[in-house]
Design goal:
- The chain has about 130 residues and is α+β, with helices and mostly antiparallel strands.
- The chain has a single domain (about 5-100), classed as Ribosomal Protein S5, domain 2.
- It contains five helices and five strands, in the order ββββαααβαα.
- A hairpin with a 2-residue loop joins β3 (about 30) and β4 (about 30-35).
- It is elongated, with a radius of gyration of 18 Å.
- The chain starts with a strand and ends in a 30-residue tail after the last helix.
- The relative contact order is 0.22.
Length: about 130
């Protein structure tokens, strides 16, 4: 069994479980390659691999990710956070560099719920005087 380091990333409604392995195989998300899984999302590979590129380990390590929930943007950023957290578990010395680029901070923004008698979360129906 291969040795790996695991990190969990979340963003919006998405949760990603990321495992980093030594080697230079292709990285996968839900069993598919990055470009196949995130079709239609430009620069998806650069977004996801940013933590690896920042610390200079993109040629030495690859990752597998299992992602559940949310849309493509939330999943992309959840995987990115998972990769960064797994790198910190692997080597604590990488933490300052990743923290400086804000790759270890979980983005807490969520969609506000829709209220009754409203069109959206805050938008009210158009007022008609007559």
């Amino acid at each position: 069994m291969e040795k790996y380091f695991e990190g969990i990333g979340r963003r919006k409604r998405s949760t990603a479980r990321v495992r980093i392995y030594a080697g230079d195989k292709g990285s996968t998300v839900n069993g598919k390659s990055l470009d196949k899984y995130f079709t239609g999302t430009p620069n998806s590979e650069t977004i996801v691999k940013r933590p690896l590129v920042l610390v200079g380990l993109e040629k030495k390590y690859y990752f597998t990710a299992k992602v559940v929930g949310g849309g493509s943007t939330g999943q992309l950023e959840a995987v990115r956070l998972g990769v960064a957290r797994a790198l910190v578990k692997m080597d604590e010395a990488l933490k300052p560099a990743l923290r400086k680029e804000r790759l270890l901070t979980r983005d807490p923004r969520e969609v506000e719920r829709k209220k009754y008698d409203h069109v959206k979360a805050r938008k009210k129906p158009q007022f008609s005087k007559r």
